[in-house]
Design a protein that fits this description.
The structure is a single chain. By secondary structure, the chain is α+β, with helices and mostly antiparallel strands. The protein contains 62 helices and 44 strands. It has a six-stranded mixed sheet, with helices on one face. Strands 34-33-32-31-35-36 form a six-stranded antiparallel sheet, with no helix packed on it. Helix 10 packs antiparallel against helix 11. The relative contact order is 0.05.
């Protein structure tokens, strides 16, 4: 099929469908697909016309440089639905010329079919009808130019066939069956075509059935040759073959066709696949939902189901949860069956389908309805029975009013064809008609619909680019071995293979101990036995023959005690439970066999009556343990774990349960998780399925653990083990016991497990849902039941977590753990495993940091054995093939600490293999520098990130290749870039510590592939690509900045929480404090100055990234305080002495070895001298509570260096060790760490060794001797002493004693009143009660709280970024009420009422906690009402503050106060401002108080404004906020990405703007003006613009746009002339200033619109004057020396600032901050202070942008309008160049290239623009090729002469033609 023209596209698709083609091959499509938009690509057009399963693959010449959509040549292969499902790959001509393309199809038993479409160019003589010239746009000329450029002198036709044969040979060598369909432009019966295919035994498939002598010429245009053919390999035998006349198809050649069987092509017969059932109920369609609900209630009432269900529920409740009786079960099933039928019937009737590939609009729908009407009428006329009412309805819908009684059948057919024509025309523009139709909706609804449709469309594009478009399901599976696979493709075979595999999968646990006696004798298969109760209460006595590991495990399944006041897990489903559960559920989640969808239940939950009915049906199983029969049918959906891998044992089985059944199981999950959180009973190192936990936190935990080991130099063993099929192997009795141990009732667990045990499983594949099943057999009820909790079950992860937590407890009890202590606070971190579902990493360490690795390794095999036995004791197993381990240990190599490699510490571990005999095998061991992937993050113990860098770089390159091969629109490419690959690359960043260069390298291939697709130059400066909108960057997140933000978020989220990550973060930070030895928190130290002392860790590398930024972290770092007056930190002092880095490192090693921090640690007790031991770098024997890392004994050189440091504390040239500045008094008299004490009264020495009782030493001459007497009560006059004990410990000599202790200030006693409690609050809490009134000490309110009648209400006021809040607490009456008010701490963005409401709630909770403390309240309740619903979520017990959300600091503070409060808090939402809507006496008390607090907050705000003006809100730390981030003295609310990103990244962008560049010699901004620019206003305006306009601003401002100077700089054109005014030097500034014809009209129109906006928005007159004068001066390029008349001094300041910033920059969106200041003052003068100046500014800047954009738009219209003079000039210039080339003539060109000059110049000038450009390109290429030939020839001659001369010289000793004259000093020859 040749020549695909746009008007023939529909004909082509109709032709393909008419003949039911499976594969279509096309040649010479004539399309330049690179210049065609995504929605007009062949793939998209084919999908719209023939269905979504069609796959179209095209090839064209990528090298032509043609901008036109027309380009001769090209090929395509399209596979229709019958074949596309077997697609296994596509490809094209590797040269990029588009000469051929192919598609590969995967069949059975290793059979592959490859179909190729090839187009070989015509010879010049054929193309010109006998003339020499080939034409400049012909395929021949295109290929000839390319070959010339490649220095290839082959004829294009020969090159095509030779290159194609290379590919063909490789296909056949690979064992593929091959079909080649082509337009060869050679006679196919002659050489070279015949010989080419003969060499590969390929036959002409048409001539195999027909005599070629009767076959017509291919084109019928005078050429008598047969140039088209279809060739096939020998095994492809056609059943039929032939050709289709030119008149019957859209091409200009005869269409060839062959019909072969599926069996011969793919090795199996064709398979019919069902289409998925479409859902009628759509929740976005309110009318549809209402119709469904109404119809369902009608049906339920018809069958009396409401009454029957509630009657049954009352009976069940009365029975106390006993199992249902037979009659009750029968009634429950009857109700459920009827309810199911009613829901399906209601869904069927809620709407009719109107589906298709055409977007709906009345313009397309009306002709389609007319077609259906006329066709139905014709069929009725022909005698078919078609309902008259249906015809009338169709006529009404189609809007047809024409009488039809007198119409003949021929007339009706004419009307039908007319409607079809209208429909065909409308279908071509159906997307545009859809948009016009959406414009008829209300703006809000229209925007929503457009947004949803656009998101769906772009989501599909993302999936397409990433190769993740959802398929139809599994249609092929493979079994057997890799060497001899057996492939199944038929429905019975595929289903049988999957059923066999799943039966095996769910029976893996049958041979494990809990499925064998004696366990089953005691617990059965359910676990609901008295023995289980004994296990839970801790009284179970296991029989001796039970598996030992199982016995131990059961000992740790004792029920976890509930905290005081915590109620057990609920065992009822309430209506509210049901409503909330379905509210959160996703509408399109797949469900089970019955057909009841999530959408139906969600719609039910929206109706109170239906919601209660559904809750009642769910409640019966949850309360009694019953399982409906419908719940016992499961659907196994099979998914490949990896694309293209269809081994049956590598498929993932997802169980699709009934929607309401799984909702019950999800409730079980939530209830258990709620109990576990409150009781703190789940192991904190378990991350899978935990609320509020991100998957990447597990790798972060592992990373921090490795950091701690490295920091402490602690030996450990680490083993990664994967629990094989963990969900599928869970034994039900074990799950039952473990879930109960975490507070769950029996009934919900029993209901779930019963449904699974008695479940029949069907299979969902591409063939549909199977009738075949496996599972529970009612005819054999005594068979061993199915086990496992199954993937897809909402409670499966909870069951597994319950089991694994008990296993971890068991391991810890056995003494297997890794225990580390935080360095300073000595907080213990003890754990055994970091676990995420089935991925577990085991850790084992020694008791101390100095324990050698050999001792740890000696216990590691026992740990692995116990872990494997514990898993097996629960039905599980370790996946041996996924296991590996490390032995981590360290040694000092003389200059640094290094990891010990595995070859220096031999050892091996074994685990049983996953074979029937469980033969042990050696587990692979890795070196600490080898990485493995954990949940998408590459981790290795030494912390090196090279593997992670390469891992991300590979993903980036793969995506670049994928996006380059797709044709997508610019804005779709930008969306795909941000929504797909960037998210993929960003995922691991919380756990990584990549450098900025590494991150830039990872992004580089992504940007090189994506930016051109987005219409952005590929080498756009990266500082602009990653800059935020505030500085007019493209706002693509830089990975390194995102990494820094993720780190800060992790620090804020966990830094002060007792999570495993939080504990380890603090431990690593304390380790850095200890190893750095500075008195300054290390976050505040310069990283480059101190980095060599810090172990490389996640924390230290985060410090590296934060240090250059303006950000600072503040938080609770426990820096050891100085213990006495005049003390010094040793390392701070050493740093000030100017030691080198290497010397500092050695000094620090000495300090760490001595376990000292301060100068007082190395001097005598009296503070006068250096201690003798310390002088020699020996420990003094004093104790330290700190956990010091492993150290080494200093060398002699180190000791001498240490002494040099000690000498710096002595007088110059001192021969003694007395300090220049003696230390002062000790701050504390008691010191449990000081070992020796002297009683000045009796001269006794008292010794307190670590962990030992006091010993008394009595005076003995000049020393002291130990006494046997027991110490009496210690005397009060003890002082510290330094003592030297002799070697045998018999005598102790007193060296020095300490002086007195500094006297602390006495605390002033205060009375215990509410006022005193508030007065003594620290400042971080006191702000919340700045104003308060407590009339009777809170007694009245305390009583109201006890009685449960207290009510607290708050509200806030916010104006001008200054907020106040007020609150009240009262009882039944206002008597004794408590009032309060406060100023909201900053920062407060404009309109942030949420933060202000939080401040009011904090005031309430602060008062409540003080009341409970003062009045000793332990119980009671208070209602807390607020009109901001978002604040009330914080009261949820499961709430976890998120640092990426607003006001994180206040949220943390409020959350902590809520957790502290001992009484019950009852939050409720109250609507605000109700007094404006109804009379006060109709308001509830909460509504009245809300209005009152609103007024009080406003009054307090006004009071603050009146008394001190409106200052900035206070920037303070608030209580319990943990870590906070500060930016140059201004605190951030948290770690929101939107706030942090500009603060981190924008400095790079501003640096670009303030410097000159080669493409932009004049810098854009003066550095002096940066502080005056309103970047927030710029961000607001940029956000309001569409993405292409944002990109234009960045490109325009940086000269990276398509203007003349830029194109000339890039080498894309030779001149930089303006297309409008014809002047040289067109840059972005010239675009704005060009005064060409009509440009002023465009400017004036947009300028008038701008001034109108300023007038209508009450703009300050001075601002209007500025705009009117300065912008016009800028436009006219007038001097700015003359200033316009301005009435205010501040306006004149604005003028100067904006002059410095630049008025061109103002047009692009960079204003001075004073614009808003002046406008705000003006509005206040007008009495309109509430009008938003921020909104005014955004409108102002967007209209300025329109002013600039208007000039750009006008310029492009001139440029691309063929009638405009610029185009005419370009054509003249091209004609001039052509004339010059024609004057040069063919010159020395070879004969093959001289044909270009045979066309007369006049004829050439008459050709099209594209033709002439192609002629010039072809001639230039030919000349360049000839020049290279001549150069090579000259080089060859020179080389030949040189070789001859060398040979002559070697033979004669003389150069040719010269006599040899030896040097006087040379030896004779």
């Amino acid at each position: 099929m040749n020549r695909l023209n746009s008007h023939k596209t529909d004909e082509l698709f109709e032709f393909i469908q008419k003949f039911s083609a499976g594969v279509f091959c096309g040649q010479e499509l004539g399309r330049n697909w690179s210049a065609i938009s995504a929605d007009q690509q062949l793939q998209q057009l084919a999908k719209e016309s023939m269905g979504p399963q069609v796959r179209a693959h095209t090839a064209h010449n990528f090298h032509s440089g043609v901008d036109s959509v027309t380009q001769w040549g090209g090929t395509c292969v399209m596979s229709m639905e019958s074949m596309s499902r077997y697609a296994a790959g596509i490809g094209r001509d590797p040269s990029g010329l588009g000469r051929w393309c192919w598609a590969r199809f995967k069949g059975r038993n290793g059979i592959h079919l490859r179909v190729a479409s090839i187009y070989c160019p015509c010879s010049p003589s054929v193309a010109a009808g006998g003339t020499i010239s080939a034409g400049e746009l012909t395929v021949y000329s295109q290929h000839k130019k390319f070959l010339n450029d490649q220095n290839d002198d082959r004829d294009p036709r020969t090159a095509c066939l030779e290159d194609f044969e290379v590919d063909l040979a490789s296909w056949i060598d690979a064992g593929d069956q091959v079909i080649v369909a082509g337009d060869f432009n050679f006679h196919v019966m002659d050489d070279p075509i015949a010989s080419l295919f003969d060499r590969y035994d390929m036959h002409n498939m048409i001539f195999a059935l027909h005599d070629h002598r009767g076959f017509p010429a291919s084109s019928g245009k005078g050429d008598t040759r047969t140039v088209d053919a279809i060739f096939g390999t020998p095994n492809l035998v056609p059943l039929k073959a032939g050709y289709i006349d030119i008149t019957d198809q859209p091409g200009d050649h005869y269409a060839l066709w062959v019909d072969i069987t599926f069996q011969s092509a793919l090795g199996h017969p064709p398979t019919q696949f069902p289409h998925p059932r479409m859902r009628r109920l759509q929740l976005s369609n309110a009318r549809c939902v209402a119709k469904y609900q109404q119809r369902l209630k009608q049906l339920l009432r018809k069958h009396n189901l409401f009454h029957r269900q509630y009657t049954l529920e009352q009976e069940v409740l009365a029975s106390g949860g006993a199992p249902l009786t037979e009659a009750q079960a029968k009634e429950a099933e009857a109700i459920d069956n009827l309810r199911t039928r009613c829901m399906l019937q209601a869904e069927k009737q809620c709407r009719k389908f109107r589906t298709g590939e055409v977007d709906y609009s009345p313009t397309t729908a009306m002709p389609a309805r007319a077609m259906r009407y006329w066709y139905s009428l014709i069929r009725r006329t022909q005698g078919l029975q078609i309902s008259l009412s249906k015809i009338k309805k169709l006529k009404q819908l189609a809007g047809i009013h024409e009488p039809t009684a007198l119409l003949t059948e021929q007339d009706m057919w004419a009307r039908y064809k007319e409607a079809r024509t209208l429909y065909s025309e409308a279908k071509k523009a159906h997307k545009e008609f859809r948009l016009k139709y959406l414009d008829t909706f209300t703006p809000k609804e229209r925007d929503r619909l457009k947004r949803v449709e656009e998101q769906r469309r772009q989501g599909r594009i993302c999936k397409m680019v990433n190769g993740k478009l959802r398929g139809e399901g599994i249609s092929t599976v493979a079994v057997g071995s890799d060497e001899a696979p057996i492939v199944y493709v038929t429905q019975p075979q595929v289903e049988a293979a999957i059923i066999a595999e799943n039966q095996s999968k769910y029976s893996q646990c049958l041979g494990t101990p809990p499925m064998q006696p004696p366990f089953t004798n005691l617990f059965g298969y359910t676990g609901d036995t008295p023995a289980a109760d004994q296990v839970l209460d801790g009284t179970f006595q296991a029989p001796p023959d039970m598996d030992p590991a199982l016995q131990t495990f059961l000992q740790h399944c004792k029920a976890h005690p509930a905290p005081e006041g915590l109620t057990p897990c609920p065992n009822h489903v309430t209506t509210e439970d049901n409503r909330l559960a379905w509210k959160k559920a996703k509408e399109h989640t797949q469900a089970g066999l019955s057909g009841l969808t999530f959408a139906m239940f969600k719609a039910n939950a929206l109706d109170p009556e239906l919601c209660a009915f559904d809750a009642s049906i769910r409640d019966i199983p949850y309360f009694t343990g019953y399982a409906y029969k419908r719940w016992k049918k499961g659907l196994n959906a099979m998914l490949p774990k990896k694309d293209g891998v269809f081994w049956v044992h590598k498929l993932r089985t997802i169980l699709l349960l009934e929607a309401d059944a799984n909702m019950n199981y999800k409730k079980l999950h939530r209830d258990v998780m709620w109990f576990a959180r409150q009781a703190d009973s789940f192991d904190p190192s378990n991350y899978g399925g935990m609320y509020g936990v991100q998957a990447v936190e597990a790798p972060l935990d592992s990373r921090l653990t490795m950091d701690l080991l490295r920091q402490k130099r602690k030996a450990a063993c680490v083993a990664s083990t994967d629990a094989k099929g963990c969900f599928d192997r869970i034994v039900h009795s074990i799950a039952f016991i473990c879930l109960r141990s975490f507070g769950m009732h029996k009934a919900p667990i029993a209901s779930m497990l019963k449904a699974i045990r008695e479940m029949t499983h069907h299979i969902r594949t591409a063939f549909g849902d199977s009738e075949a099943w496996y599972g529970f057999d009612p005819n054999n009820p005594d068979a061993v039941p199915q086990q496992g909790l199954l993937q897809g079950n909402g409670a499966a992860v909870t069951g597994w977590n319950a089991i694994i937590s008990n296993i971890m407890e068991m391991m810890l009890a056995a003494g297997f753990d890794l225990t580390v202590w935080s360095a300073i606070t000595k907080q213990v971190i003890k754990f055994i495993c970091i676990n995420f579902i089935d991925d577990g990493t085991l850790f084992l360490g020694g008791p101390t940091n100095t324990t050698p690795g050999s001792e740890v390794y000696a216990r590691m095999q026992d740990l692995l054995d116990m872990w494997e036995a514990a898993l097996r004791a629960t039905g599980g197993a370790v996946a041996f093939d996924k296991s590996y381990w490390y032995l981590i240990d360290f040694h000092w190599n003389g200059s640094s600490w290094q990891y010990i490699s595995k070859d220096k510490t031999p050892g091996e571990l074994t685990l049983p293999q996953n074979t029937p005999d469980r033969t042990p095998a050696t587990v692979p061991r890795l070196n600490p520098n080898e990485a493995r992937e954990l949940l998408g993050v590459m981790l290795q113990p030494d912390g090196n990130e090279t593997s992670q860098y390469k891992h991300l770089l590979a993903k980036a390159k793969k995506w670049k290749d994928a996006v380059r091969s797709h044709h997508i629109k610019q804005h779709d490419a930008w969306y795909t870039l941000n929504a797909s690959i960037m998210k993929t690359l960003e995922y691991p960043l919380m756990a990584t510590t990549l450098t900025r260069k590494q991150c830039s390298d990872v992004m580089s291939p992504v940007l090189m592939g994506a930016l051109p697709k987005c219409g952005i130059q590929a080498r756009m400066p990266r500082a602009l690509v990653t800059g935020s909108l505030a500085v007019q960057g493209l706002n693509l997140p830089h990975l390194h900045t995102t990494q820094t933000i993720r780190h800060l978020q992790a620090l804020l989220r966990h830094g002060c929480r007792d999570t495993q990550i939080g504990l380890k973060l603090r431990a690593v930070m304390e380790g850095h404090i200890l190893e750095l030895g500075s008195g300054t928190p290390f976050w505040d130290l310069p990283y480059d100055q101190w980095k060599f002392l810090a172990t490389p860790t996640w924390i230290s590398l985060t410090w590296r990234d934060i240090d250059p930024l303006p950000l600072r972290l503040q938080g609770p770092l426990p820096v050891p305080p100085s213990p006495r007056q005049h003390d010094l930190y040793l390392m701070d002092h050493a740093m000030s002495m100017g030691f080198s880095e290497r010397q500092m490192y050695r000094l620090n090693n000495c300090r760490l070895h001595l376990h000292v921090f301060h100068l007082s640690d190395v001097v005598t007790a009296d503070g006068l001298r250096i201690h003798p031991s310390s002088w020699n770098a020996n420990p003094t024997g004093r104790h330290s509570t700190y956990d010091w890392p492993r150290t080494f004994r200093p060398t002699q050189d180190d000791r001498e260096l240490w002494q040099a440091l000690m000498k710096s504390f002595l007088p110059p040239h001192a021969t003694h060790r007395r300090l220049t500045q003696p230390l002062g008094d000790w701050f504390q008299q008691q010191d449990p760490l000081w070992e020796w004490w002297l009683s000045q009264q009796n001269n006794y020495l008292y010794q307190t060794p670590p962990n030992a009782p006091w010993t008394v030493w009595l005076p003995h001459g000049n020393s002291h001797a130990p006494s046997a007497q027991l110490p009496a009560p210690l005397p009060p006059d003890l002082v510290r002493a330094d003592v030297s004990v002799n070697t045998d410990g018999s005598r102790a000599k007193l060296l020095s004693t300490a002086g007195s202790t500094a006297t602390p200030e006495e605390a002033i006693a205060t009375p215990n009143t509410m006022d005193s409690l508030i007065y003594n609050l620290p400042p971080e809490s006191r702000w919340a009660l700045e104003l308060y009134s407590i009339p009777d000490g809170g007694f009245t309110i305390a009583k109201a709280i006890k009685d449960g009648v207290a009510l607290a209400v708050s509200d806030a006021s916010l104006k001008l970024e200054y907020g106040t809040s007020a609150f009240v607490i009262e009882g039944h009456t206002p008597e004794g009420r408590i009032l309060g008010a406060n100023v909201v701490p900053g920062p407060i963005p404009e309109g942030d009422s949420y933060r202000c409401e939080l401040a009011g709630l904090i005031g309430i909770l602060t008062i409540l906690n003080l009341l409970c403390q003062h009045h000793q309240l332990k119980e009671g309740s208070v209602r807390i009402a607020c009109d901001n619903q978002s604040t009330l979520y914080i009261f949820d017990p499961s709430y976890i503050p998120n640092p990426n959300k607003d006001s994180y600091d206040l949220v943390c503070s409020l959350h902590h106060l809520i957790q502290q409060c001992p009484i019950t808090l009852l939050p409720e939402h109250v609507k605000g401002h109700q007094v404006d809507k109804k009379a006060r006496h109709f308001l509830t008390r909460a509504e009245q108080l809300n209005d009152e607090m609103d007024n009080l907050a406003k009054a307090f705000w006004q009071y603050k404004a009146d008394t001190g003006g409106i200052p900035n809100p206070p920037m303070i730390s608030v209580a319990n906020e943990g870590w906070s981030i500060w930016n140059q003295g201004r605190k951030l609310q948290g770690a929101q990405s939107s706030q942090l990103y500009p603060l981190i990244e924008d400095a790079h962008t501003l640096s670009f703007w303030t410097n000159s560049h080669s493409i932009q010699p004049q810098r854009r901004l003066d550095p002096a003006c940066i502080s005056n620019i309103d970047f927030q206003a710029c961000k607001d305006a940029m956000t309001a613009l569409k993405i292409p306009h944002r990109h234009w601003i960045t490109k325009q401002a940086s000269e990276n746009c398509s203007v003349g100077s830029t194109f000339k700089y890039w080498g894309k054109q030779e001149t930089d002339t303006c297309p409008r005014c014809d002047l040289p030097g067109e840059d972005s500034r010239h675009v704005l200033l060009c005064r060409a014809e009509n440009s002023d009209t465009t400017w004036d129109s947009n300028f008038t619109e701008l001034i109108t906006y300023l007038d209508e928005t009450h703009t300050d007159p001075d601002l209007i004057v500025l705009v009117q004068t300065r912008l016009q001066q800028f436009r006219r390029q007038e001097s700015l020396i003359l200033h316009p008349p301005l009435s205010q001094a501040i306006s004149r300041t604005l003028l100067l600032q904006q002059d410095l910033i630049g008025w061109q920059n103002l047009l692009y969106g960079f204003p001075s901050k004073l614009w808003q200041v002046i406008q705000s003052r003006h509005l206040r003068r007008l009495g309109s202070p509430n009008l938003s100046t921020r909104s005014w500014m955004k409108g102002f800047l967007t209209r300025l942008h329109k002013l600039a954009w208007g000039q750009w738009d006008h310029r492009n219209k001139v440029l691309y309008d063929p009638d405009m003079k610029w185009q005419q000039k370009m054509r003249r210039e091209l004609d001039d160049v052509l004339a010059e080339e024609m004057m040069r003539g063919p010159m020395n060109l070879p004969p093959g290239d001289r044909s270009h000059f045979q066309l007369p110049l006049a004829d050439l000038m008459a050709k099209s623009w594209d033709y002439k450009k192609a002629w010039l390109a072809n001639v230039s290429s030919a000349r360049n090729r000839q020049a290279r030939r001549q150069s090579l020839a000259a080089d060859a001659i020179a080389d030949s002469r040189a070789r001859s001369a060398l040979l002559h010289f070697n033979a004669t000793g003389q150069l040719p033609g010269r006599a040899y004259k030896p040097s006087p000093d040379a030896p004779p020859p």
